[in-house]
Amino acid sequence: MKIMITISENSEAKELMPIAQAVHILVNKLPVAMRSKNKPGVRLEKGEVVDTNYEGYVLKVAIEKGEVVRATPIIGPYAGLPVIVAPIKDGDNVLGAIGVVDITAGIFEDIVAISRRPELYKFLPEDAFPK
Q1: Which domains can be identified in the chain, with CATH numbers?
Q2: Are 97 and 63 in contact (CB under 8 A)?
Q3: Residue 111 — φ and ψ, nearest 5°?
Q4: From residue 119, how far is each of 7, 22, 98, 106, 115 by CA, in Å?
Q5: Between 11 and which of 27, 36, 60, 96 could a Cys-Cys bridge form, CB atoms 3.0 to 4.6 Å apart?
Q6: Confidence of residue 116 (pLDDT cuts 50, 70, 90)
Q7: Backbone dihedral region of 115: left (phi > 0), alpha (psi from -120 to 50 degrees) or beta?
């Protein structure tokens, strides 16, 4: 049996759920939110779906800009918590966005900058080690 998951600018929460759940598990059940460009999406916390009509201001910003956004929202369920949101693209067309609460608060970037281990160079993009 072949099953295909597709995402479009008009995907609804139920269509986004399998991908959002997979990412939620990959990040050890950190809060994850995902939406399409034109419709509200889904929000997961502690292994559970907590919202299937989630707008997400920072998700909308990432969709509008078409680039990764690192921000600390001032309103909403994640107010005061740093988040990282990435657009979901098909070429230059932004279909939606997915984000996670950044419990490291940027510590990972600091650790990479401090360590600058040469053996990591072959696994990471050049911009991971700014000059």
Answers
A1: 13-105 (3.30.450.40)
A2: yes
A3: -65, -45
A4: 36, 29, 30, 22, 11
A5: 36
A6: low
A7: alpha
Whole-structure pTM value: 0.80
Distance CA 124, CA 53 (A): 35
Pair 43, 32: CB distance under 8 Å: yes
- At 20-67, the pLDDT tens digits run 999 999 999 999 999 999 999 999 999 999 999 999 999 999 999 999
One-character DSSP codes across 13-69: HHHHHHHHHHHHHHTTT--EEEEESSS-EEEEETTEEEEEEE--HHHHHHHHHTS-E
DSSP summary character for residue 17 = H
Beta bridge partner(s), residue 70? 84
User: What are the backbone angles phi and psi of residue 42, rounded to the nearest 5°?
Assistant: -125, 150
Amino acid code (one letter) for 34: M
